[in-house]
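Our consortium's second objective concerns turning raw sequence data into structural hypotheses that experimental partners can test. To show how far this objective has progressed, the report includes one record in full. It was chosen at random from the queue rather than selected for favorable results. The single chain below, 153 residues long, was entered without modification.
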Amino acid sequence: MSYKDVIDLLSGETQSKKRRSIIQGLLIGSAIGVGSSLLLAPRSGRATRQRLVDGAANVGLSLQAGSIKTVNRLKTTVDNLTTNAKAIATDVSHTTQAVQESMKNIQVLRHTLERNARQLSKQSVDARQAGDRLSKASENLQVEADELKDKMT
């Protein structure tokens, strides 16, 4: 049986009986292995039991130490994430304030530009009217100059 077959056996819903039999086989095999190691051990029952108790205690201590290390790493990670999140929140807050201030400045500039555009438009009309008046005055002066010239000749 290949690795893929074992995966297929363990993952298929329709093959729950095959899965159960594989798991039962693993559990029974483990129990037989533990039992035979106890029976075939070169120590007395008391020594074997004490060794099992000591081993279980060592495993418990190792698990406890590993759990403490894991909890401490998790606490450190959470603290770092919290610090980073607070720094990001502060940066976002400052950026938001800066954007709001920039928007206010843009509004002021827009109003100023609109006012200046209206003033320039009015000045342009005034300049055009003044130019028209100058042109008319120039024409009048030319006519008068022509009339004077005719009178003199």
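The partners drew two points from this record. Residues 144 and 150 are 10 Å apart (CA to CA). The radius of gyration is 49 Å. Both points have been shared with the crystallography group to help prioritize constructs.
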